[in-house]
Specification:
This protein has helices at residues 3-10, 17-20, 38-47, 58-62, 167-173, 187-201, 231-240, 271-274, 295-300, 310-325; strands at 26-27, 30-32, 96-107, 119-132, 136-148, 154-166, 224-226, 249-251, 330-338, 348-359, 365-376, 381-392. By secondary structure, it is α+β, with helices and mostly antiparallel strands. The protein has a single domain (3-392), classed as Hotdog Thioesterase (Thiol Ester Dehydrase, Chain A, Roll). The strands form two sheets. Strands 1-4-5-6-3-9-12-11-10-7 form a ten-stranded antiparallel beta sheet. Strands 2-8 form a two-stranded antiparallel ribbon. α3 (38-47) runs antiparallel to α7.
């Protein structure tokens, strides 16, 4: 028997029996208490490292084609408690953890504005089991979140994929061992990355209007740059999600098993202690998200070092395409799979290309399909997928 076969033989099997009873059922979770403010939107832009003046400067926003201060489409995920993952983490799988596997979005038109209050409607959709080099038998579980504003309008629907795996298997396979060491950047390296980043930022500092007629198949988007990622940047990201603010949300009373997903004891929140000390349940200091900023807990769940958030990866892609599409552009559909988390010390690059064009029949707009890829400084693919964007064709 080969070494690989011996390792496979030693892997633990995943018990999905408790997951089965949730599939196809509406589930509950938290809901935000307060309406969105301008500073919530600004904090989001800051956390996602997206200095588009449309989402920072109200004067610039009022002079734009929208004529008012609105949130980026990526902000939609910030209006949910649990960044859309709750319905994809239902059912107990003992001694397991999860990573984000991807997000599919459908946007229906209403833009989120200061003063809006959104509610999430959730459904545990489905799952499948597949063998992975990371953890052997692995569950790819999907759940739907529908975002509805205070007027009853459906803003968007998100289908999130959670990669649920047994931590013991991830340790046995140790497939990410070569990534244990954080890259070392010289001052010259950091200056070069900063130049790349500023060059990208310059592409959306003015009032960008992208016309469908001026776009051609094969056009490449400017390269996006995020990073190098640090503990500070990951913390800033996490704190830009509104549900991480103490007292910002409350349970809606519907059934959910996310807090009993089978987390390791070190990754479990103590709800009773949390009534006295909110840090016990806010994810960053205690709970399932603490591995994002604390190396020892990243390693505990089989990740080589502190790592970024899958929900943020999806937001980076949406921001990247929206910045290119300009003030009259609108992302209608996005389907991105995540393959490799952003690790502390790495740089994330985004590249996009126009694949298809489709004219609209009546309303003076056209559709453009883009293929986007996210990769590290060494070329490791982090995410990829397709997006559909609506552009004016007048």
């Amino acid at each position: 028997m080969t070494q690989a076969a011996e390792e496979t033989e030693q892997l633990e099997r995943m018990d999905t029996s408790d997951v089965d009873r949730w599939i196809g059922k509406p589930v509950g979770g938290g809901q935000l208490k307060d309406p969105i403010s301008r500073n919530d939107i600004r904090r989001w832009a800051q956390g996602m490292q997206n200095p588009n003046p449309l989402y920072i400067d109200e004067t610039h926003a009022e002079e734009s084609a929208n004529g008012e201060f609105v949130a980026p489409q990526s902000f939609t995920i910030c209006t949910d408690v649990g960044h859309g993952a709750t319905p994809s983490i239902q059912g107990t799988v003992p001694d397991s953890h999860m990573l984000f596997g991807g997000d599919e979005w459908w946007f229906f038109g209403p833009r989120i504005k200061p003063g809006d209050l959104l509610r999430s409607e959730r459904l545990a959709f489905d799952y499948k089991i597949a063998n992975t080099s990371f953890a052997g038998p692995t569950m790819f579980q999907r759940g739907d979140t529908t975002y509805v504003n205070q007027r009853g309008e459906i803003v968007a629907k998100q289908r999130s994929t959670s990669i649920r795996y047994l931590v013991a298997n991830a340790h046995r396979l140790n497939s990410l061992q070569e990534l244990q060491k954080e890259p070392e950047w010289t001052d010259e390296d950091l200056m070069a990355i900063e130049r790349e980043r500023l060059e990208y930022y310059q592409t959306f500092q003015g009032h960008v209007i992208r016309n469908w007629n001026a776009v051609n198949i094969g056009d490449r988007l400017p390269r996006g740059v995020i990073g190098p990622h640090t503990l500070q940047s990951f913390t800033t990201e996490w704190r830009s999600y509104l549900f991480t603010v103490w007292g910002s949300n409350g349970p809606d009373g519907r059934p959910t098993s996310t807090s009993e997903a089978g987390w390791l004891p070190e990754m479990t929140s103590d709800r009773e202690k949390g009534k006295i000390d909110p840090s016990q349940v806010d994810g960053l200091y205690k709970g399932a998200s603490r591995g994002h900023t604390i190396d020892r807990y990243a390693k505990l769940i089989g990740v080589p070092r502190a790592y970024g958030y899958g929900a943020s990866m999806g937001a980076w892609v949406l921001d990247y395409v929206a910045n290119w599409a300009g003030e009259t552009g609108f992302v209608t559909h996005s389907n991105i799979s995540y393959r490799h988390p952003p690790l502390v010390g790495d740089v994330t690059y985004l590249d996009g290309e126009v694949e298809q064009k489709q004219p609209a029949e009546k309303d003076g707009v056209g559709l453009v399909q883009l293929r986007v890829q996210m990769s590290t400084q060494t070329g490791v693919q982090m995410a990829r997928g397709l997006l559909e964007v609506r552009l004016e064709a007048k």
